Amino acid sequence: MLTLGIETSCDETSAALTEGRKVLSNVVSSSVHLHKKYGGVVPEIASRFHVEYIVEVVKKALAAAGKRLEDVELISVTNGPGLVGALLIGVSFAKSLSYSLGVPLIGVNHIVAHIYSSFLSDGPAPEFPFVGLVVSGGHTSLFLCKDIDRYTLLGQTQDDAIGEAYDKVSKLLGLGYPGGPAIEKAARMASVRDAKLFPRSMLGKDSFDFSFSGVKTAVLYFVQKLKEQDALAPEAVNEIAYSFQEAILDVLVKKAFRASSARKVKSIVIGGGVVANSRLRELFTARAGASVGVKVFFPEFVYSMDNAAMVAFLGEALYKKGYKSDLSLCAEPNLKIQEEVC
Ligand code: KG4
Ligand code: ZN
Prior knowledge:
Blueprint: E1 3-7, E2 12-19, E3 22-30, H1 32-35, H2 43-65, E4 74-80, H3 84-101, E5 105-109, H4 110-115, E6 130-135, E7 140-147, E8 150-156, H5 162-172, H6 179-189, H7 213-228, H8 234-262, E9 267-271, H9 278-290, E10 295-297, H10 308-320
Parallel strand pairs: 1-4, 4-5, 6-9, 9-10
Antiparallel strand pairs: 1-2, 2-3, 6-7, 7-8
């Protein structure tokens, strides 16, 4: 079923055409360069960028797939969570298109869509049930995913999201925005590699929740001390970046594998901007190698960041299960996942 996906929840304007797991095109236009000097996403700038580029991005996605608007059979759009002004552009655009073309519309949850970014490749797809780990700028959550529409939340961050922690620590270290790629690069350049400078917050041995504010504060005090001694040299910055990254990724790996063992599932599927991190992939792959029978799925790099292909894939799968939206679909900045308790 030819599905047009539309994603405008934050600073990426994206449109994609998919048929099941096959991605015919995925066009992403990012306004990240406009936010850099402010050290984070400015909602008004992001929204205006979506208004300016959405038509062009959709046209490019159609052209790249060799399709016309009339060929589209379903429109799937992110309707939350995200920045309300940014979401509104995608939702209004998708509703207008659905009405004028007379094709069905479905609104999807951005966080759930991240989990399905690993399905957009030729290899074997993860099988339900699996542990879904979302690591993005706004969320850090562990789910038990039983089906495309059946989730149990196992745990989530109690304070900062992991991407947010990367961004804040990067700012502290003077490495700029977005922080994830900057910290990853600095960590790779560290010649002194002490993984134990900062604490790991496990929140008890049975908890699947996360907390990243403690490690962030520990970095802040460490940096303040070095600054007082005039010792925050580039090598010290690299060493801090390395140790911070090891501390937070260690917690992720332990909790995700703990969840797979507690729930007796054999696959862990990771999605969200932070899964672009190559150290994260290295650590999960190594741990999977040591845990007989547990497989870890990562998206291709292009589908790690916000993109419309994952939105189209999820929308089509839900539509085929009988779900659909109508023109009353709203942008919902705090959209929650429908959970099952178990
Ligand atoms: O999923 P995403 O594109 O947007 C949200 O839905 O939030 O995630 C953005 C987050 C940012 O915090 C960014 O610093 C982080 O993903 N990120 C990374 C890397 N690339 C992006 N974090 C760690 N390592 C990376 N290579
Ligand atoms: Zn995202």
